[in-house]
Write a structure and sequence with these properties.
By secondary structure, this protein is mainly α. It is 74% helix and 2% strand. The strands form 2 sheets. The protein has a two-stranded antiparallel ribbon with strand order 1-2. The longest helix has 37 residues. The protein is globular. The relative contact order is 0.20.
Length: 354
């Protein structure tokens, strides 16, 4: 290659690098854009009470999106998380109100900590079922989780015949009071759900970067065949990510029921859309192998602020679904463009050095 040709390509490489940087920072740009937009057009958007409410909603999206991020990094998808939210909320409500009838004239009741543990266990079990369908029966992730979406939602509806479980205050003599603290309590002025999110997000980020199993998740998504040949137990990795996704959904089910002090079988409907949108907007590649927890958290706040801001502006819920769908499409298109541009910039930089 002549020096003239190499010199001609330098500006293109530099310009491509700038554009690539902007694409990588798209989640931050989107966050600032929605904040500025709604600050101007939505009344009382920056009020303290509204910021607290938005942070709670964003935290719910973020919990689901963290689990979804790990799933998508492996090249899979989990459509069942919204239904798991609804079912786990019903499980928590049922345990508080009715306990477990042992069929021997005795009903076992649990304190709130035990209720939370049992509810999260249910989420993990459903995630394990997804994992088994995908790894042992070779069912495509889309189909497997679509099936469990319907099963989990149907079980939630059957539990109460479609009715709400109200007044989850518990009873003092049973020792199961205090459920409201999870949804409405604060720690150092921050909502409890946000504080839990901070802990979970930091743990997930550390896990993804420093724990061998976390790094194996990226290896499986990058090239599953190569991962198998290198000795990675691919099925174990996939089982883990779906179980963690179910665990994350169970946390959201607990939080929503705690905020409402009631459980409804349709809680969590369409939340899988928010989780996918947040993960993709945060830089997680739908083709697998790439994503960050930090980016996902920011993406979740973008989706949360977008949803609440549209409500404050009086935008129809139908239009909100349209806008979220557009966000997902745009995020995927930008991600694909980023990958192609990354390859071109790399080639140009190599040509420049040559």
């Amino acid at each position: 290659m002549t020096s003239a040709t190499a010199t001609a390509k330098v500006p293109s490489a530099d310009g491509g690098s700038v554009l690539l940087t902007l694409m990588k920072a798209r989640t931050f740009i989107a966050l600032f854009a929605v904040i500025i937009f709604f600050s101007i057009f939505a009344p009382n958007f920056l009020s303290t009470s509204n910021m607290i409410l938005m942070s709670k909603h964003a935290a719910q999206n973020a919990f689901l999106a963290i689990g979804m991020t790990f799933v998508i990094i492996t090249g899979g998808i989990d459509l069942s998380v919204g239904s798991i939210v609804g079912l786990c909320g019903m499980v928590a409500g049922g345990l508080i109100l009715h306990g477990i009838d042992l069929q021997i004239g005795y009903t076992m009741y649990f304190n709130i900590f035990e209720v939370a543990i049992l509810t999260m266990f249910v989420g993990v079990v459903i995630g394990a079922i997804n994992g088994l369908l995908i790894t042992k029966l070779n069912v495509a992730p889309f189909i497997a989780t679509l099936g469990t979406l319907y099963v989990a939602r149907g079980m939630a509806l059957l539990y109460s015949n479609g009715q709400t479980l109200p007044n989850l205050n518990g009873r003092e003599e049973l020792g199961n009071q205090g459920f409201s603290y999870l949804g409405s309590g604060t720690i150092f002025g921050l909502p409890v759900s946000v504080c839990i999110l901070i802990v979970v997000a930091l743990a997930a980020a550390y896990f993804a970067r420093f724990v061998p199993l976390g790094r194996q998740i990226f290896a499986v998504g990058g090239n599953e065949r190569a991962a198998r040949m290198s000795g990675i137990r691919v099925n174990r990795v996939k089982m883990f990510v779906y179980m963690f996704s179910g665990f994350s959904a169970a946390i959201v089910g607990l939080i929503i029921s705690s905020e409402l002090m009631a459980s409804h079988p349709l809680n969590g409907t369409n939340l899988e859309l928010n989780a996918i949108a947040a993960a993709v907007l945060g830089g997680t590649s739908m083709s697998g192998g790439r994503g960050t927890i930090g980016g996902t958290i920011i993406g979740a706040f973008v989706i949360g602020i977008l949803s609440d801001g549209l409500v404050m502006m009086g935008v129809s819920s139908f239009w909100q679904m349209v806008i979220k769908g557009i966000v997902i499409i745009v995020a995927v298109v930008v991600d694909q463009a980023q990958r192609r541009l990354q390859q071109r910039v790399t080639l140009m930089q190599l040509a420049k050095k040559g």
